[in-house]
User: What shape does this take?
Amino acid sequence: MSVKRTESQGVLRKLYWHIFDYIAAVRLKKNDLDPRVIHAHLITVLCTGVLMWAYVAVSFIFMSSTAPKVISLVASIVHLISPLFYRFSNRVFLISNIMLLAGMSHQLVSAFYSGGFNSYILIWFGVLPSLAGIISGMRGLVLWATLTTSVCLVLLLMDIYGFNFPGSGDGIMSPVFQSLMVFGWIFINTTMM
Assistant: This one.
């Protein structure tokens, strides 16, 4: 893939290309993977990572339980480093699933500790099949649509049968999560398009 790079590129664009060149170097040398796949994965990580780290900050500030803090932090780190796996492998489906699983575990734990099925965070499950489709095609789309629907169905059934999710009554969480959801959806959709 030939991309014209000019001296007039901004600092962020130059930084992006340095990161891309480092991650893609082995794949480009072996010519065993379309560079657009690595671009899609890297852009996805950079865009969704902003929100993941925002939710990490929220969990450390507002949640009293340790589990969402630790799991969100570990999941965000795995998510952030997932593009580096292309230096070792060209297995797009595996690498994208690692990244998406990190995102899903982060979202699921945060949702569980902030109201379960009624948590604002579950809206982000709708992004996972889209991202899987963008990065790894129809197989990823179908897998992640099935996974996210199944997990949401389990949370719905738990809610219907009266499970008391932690954090259901935290009033401060509602405007914070609502803001991240509204502005996050705008940000993700704008940057991904």
The two ends are 20 Å apart (CA to CA). The chain has a mean pLDDT of 86. The longest helix spans residues 35-62. The CA atoms of residues 56 and 72 lie 6 Å apart.
